[in-house]
Amino acid sequence: MTGDGGARPAAPRSEAGTAGGRRLYTLGLWLAAPLVLARLALRSRRQPGYLDHLGERFGRYRSRAAPAVPPSAGTASLERSGPLYWLHAVSVGETQAARPVIEALRARRPDARFLLTHMTPTGRATAHELFGDTVQSVYLPYDFPFAVRRFLAHFRPDVGVIMETELWPNLVSACRRRGVPLYLVNARLSERSAARYRRFPRLTADALRGLSGVFAQADADADRLRSLGAPEVVVTGNVKFDALPSPALVAVGERWRAGWAGRPVLIAASTREGEEPRVLEALRAMQVPGLLLLLVPRHPQRFDEVARLLDQAGLRYARRSAQGGVESLADRSIQVLLGDSMGEMAVYYAACDLAFVGGSLLPLGGQNLIEPCALGRPVLVGPHTFNFREVAAQAIEAGAAIRVADPAAFAHEAERLFGDPAARAAMGEAGAAFARHHRGATARTIDRLPG
C-alpha cells in the first residue's frame, strides 16, 4: 500500500439499515429485466455485438483473467503470481482513459494481470485494439446479486477500479463482503447526473461509503460526490491528459495530410445523432477553397446512416473503409471523408488543420477535446459541453479552444481560422501547452492504489 489515500475500511454501518433499500433496488432490476433484454435486442439490430457473450451479462464466464505481460512462461503464466487488477470501463472513452492507468500499474508491478469489464461492444473492441490479448475483456454483469457474486467468485480480483462514475449498489456491497477494495477513479459527475443520483439518496450514499477511495477529476466533481455522501474524495486530476496519442497513428495521419495536395482539412469528430445535418449546414456556409471535411461519427452503428445523409445532401465523399478512399482525396471535388473506422481518432486528428469536437451542438454533453489539444490542433466546441465542463472551460481560457453557438457561428469561426494561419498556430501551441500542464493524474492515482 502506498500513498496517503490507499484502501481504508468502509465506515461501520448496519447492513439492516441499508439492505432494505438494496432489496427494493434489486426488485426494480428484476422488473426492468424484460425491458433491458428488449433494449439489447433493439440495439443489436444496428450493432450485433450487443447479443454476443450474453451469458456474461449474468455472470457466466468461460475463461480466467489474462496473464501478466509480457507472457514469458506459456500456460504457467496464468498462475496467480501477481495481483489481478480489475478495471471497469463502460465504453470507448473510459477504456481509453484506462490505458495510462494500466500502463503505470504494469510498470510498477510487472507480474500483475489485468481484467477490463465493459457494458458496450465498442468498449470491448477498443480494449482489443489497445491491448490485444494482453488484457482480458469481458462484460460486467448486470447488478443482480447472484450475477455479481458469480463474477467476483470467477475472477477473484485483488483490486477493483471503476473508471469515471458508475455506481452499482449490489456490486459495491459484494466487493465489501469479499474484502475486495473498490475505487472510483477519474471520477466526473455533471450536475445533471448528480440530480439523478439524488433521487435515491440513501442507496447512493451507501454505495459511495462502501468504496475504498474516490479520486475525482476536478474540485466541482469532488464537491458533487461529497454532497451525495462520499466521505473522502481526493482530487487527482484527469488521467485522459496522460493518454498520449500513439506516435504510429499520428504518423499515419501526417502521411494522409501530405498526400492531399495542401488541402485545408476540418474534422468534425465524434458527432452524434442529429448533429451531422448541422455540421453540413456549416460546411455549406464556409467559403474555403478546396476544403475537406473529415466526418467521424461517434458510434459505428451509425456509419451507414451518415453515408445516406451525405448521399441525400448531394455531397461527393469517400469512405475510409473503401479501397483507395483516403488516396482519392487529392481530388478537390471530393468534399468529405467519412471516417467509418474504429481506433483511428488520433489518425484523423493528426490529418486535420482544425478540429470541431462533437456531441456539443446539441444538448448531449460534448466529447473529449484533450486529444486534439495534445496534438496541437485548434479546437471548436458547441454550446453543450456539460460532460466536460471544466476541461472545456480551461481549454477556452487557455486560448486552445473557441465555443460556437450554432452552425452559423461554427462556419464563421472556421472560415476565419482557415484564413489566418498564425491564429491557428497560436491556438495549437496553446492547446499543446494546456495538455502538458495538466498531465500527472495517473501517477497521483496509482500512488493511492494498493499493490
Explain what you see.
This protein has 451 residues and is an alpha/beta fold. It has 2 domains: 194 residues, Rossmann fold (3-Layer(aba) Sandwich); 191 residues, Glycogen Phosphorylase B (Rossmann fold). Strand 4, helix 5 and strand 5 form a beta-alpha-beta unit. The longest helix has 32 residues. The chain is globular. The N terminus is likely disordered.
Short description:
This protein has helices at 15-46, 92-108, 121-131, 145-155, 169-178, 191-198, 201-209, 219-227, 247-258, 276-285, 303-313, 345-350, 370-374, 389-397, 407-418, 421-437, 441-446, and strands spanning 84-88, 113-118, 136-139, 159-163, 182-187, 213-216, 234-235, 265-271, 292-297, 317-319, 336-338, 354-357, 379-381, 401-403. By secondary structure, the chain is α/β, with parallel strands linked by helices. Strands 3-2-1-4-5-6-7 form a 7-stranded parallel sheet, with helices on both faces. Strands 10-11-9-8-12-13-14 form a 7-stranded parallel sheet.
